[in-house]
Amino acid sequence: MFKKWYPVIDFVKCTECGTCVEKCPHGVYAKEKAPTPVVIKPEKCIYKCHGCGNRCPVGAITYVGDNTGWTPPNGKSSDNVDCGCGSGCGCGGNC
Questions:
Q1: Which UniProt keywords apply (predicted)?
Q2: What DSSP line would sit under 10-62, residue for residue?
Q3: Where are the beta strands (DSSP E) in 1-95?
Q4: Taking a C-beta distance cutoff of 8 angstroms, is the pair 30, 38 a contact?
Q5: Of the residues 1, 12, 41, 66, which has the fewest C-beta atoms closer than 10 A?
Q6: Which CATH architecture has domain 1-95?
Q7: Tens digit of pLDDT for each residue in 4-40?
């Protein structure tokens, strides 16, 4: 979707809970590597979607190209974010 927007995992913080892999409806992560988050299709990430980052319980996800002012929720998972795109990903309707 957007060549300079995709998630980056901080593996020092990441606990490999699999929430990001499980909750991303866009196919950015390798499901077969779960619970380890491996970004295999960065081009499928929706521009300005923070769905996986909002759900990460340890704040281990940031985004290449993010200039929105968004910051990881620092351990406060926002699992009930409604993005408006119909997939529940948290993209804010930017699909």
A1: 4Fe-4S, Iron, Iron-sulfur, Metal-binding
A2: -TTT-----HHHHH-TT--B-GGGTTS--B--GGGSPTT--HHHHH-TT--EE
A3: 6-9, 61-64
A4: yes
A5: 12
A6: 2-Layer Sandwich (3.30)
A7: 899 999 999 999 999 999 989 999 999 999 999 999 9
